[in-house]
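Duplicate of earlier report; Multidrug resistance efflux transporter family protein input re-posted below.
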Amino acid sequence: MRPIILGICSAFFFAFTFVLNQAMELSGGSWIWSASLRYIFMVPFLLCIVLSRKNLLPLLRVMRERPGTWLLWSFVGFGLFYAPLCFASAYSPGWLIAGTWQITIISGALLAPLFFENIETKDGLERKRGKISVKGLFMSMIILLGIILMQLEHTKHISMANLWLGVIPIIIAGFAYPLGNRKMMEVSEGRLDAYQRVLGMTLASLPFWFLLSIYGFMTVGAPTKMQSFQSLLVALFSGVIATVLFFKATDMARGNMQKLASVEATQSMEVLFALAGELLFLALAIPSLLSWFGIFIVIIGMILHSYVSHKNEGPARKRTVNA
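Output:
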């Protein structure tokens, strides 16, 4: 149950991304700076944490073993995740982005066959390729049904062009984030804690963010002080606190694809927290009865998803970490 609680806490802090990115877009800030500044600002925070725990040198040793792999999957997990997320904010409101982002619930389940898991049986450990949990996938569809009901009334007021420009980048991000996260868990082989892994992926993704920053200077100019401050808040709340909490939760479920998918399903709470944030700070209209019914469906779907995942984890098929 603890990984689920950590996942919900991470969803709360992740919601700051959608609210603050929408606030930056409404004030005229560019998505380029919203994306790149977050990860640039994350570095000093994470360095202080890892240095205080005396874990920087072990991290650098692990990164030196496979630098190309770190660069690739950090770009996928962070670059192809957050740049499209910020790009979408230029075309869609935060609530729609948060709702579409729940594609991670299904993508997390669909990615299971790409990874192996060690299953402890009476004959010892057996290494098998992960399987898609049909029941878990069905529960994920219930969650997405709730999300659709929540957003149904709002989609009537958005042009088709803006809808697709907001949806397609989020679909890309929704698959890139769990893929990059899981690949880096596989590469680190349990040798790094959540703080080290987030710092390592942030450092490895910096070349992309620097290139994007150069492009930003050439096209839209320097960021404003307000956007820099808001990006700093996103870096702290979402980039550091939320990411570390989520990585801790996924580390605890590492090697168990069904439980891992359950942890990733907790991110559906982001839309609830983002909705609350926009109601409080961006003067969003109060949702209709249909939207509140969708919220109820999301909560029920999360409970059922967690229950099914734990029920399917029998004592005779205890899963251990990837190897």
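Residues 2-320 form one domain.

Merging into the original ticket.
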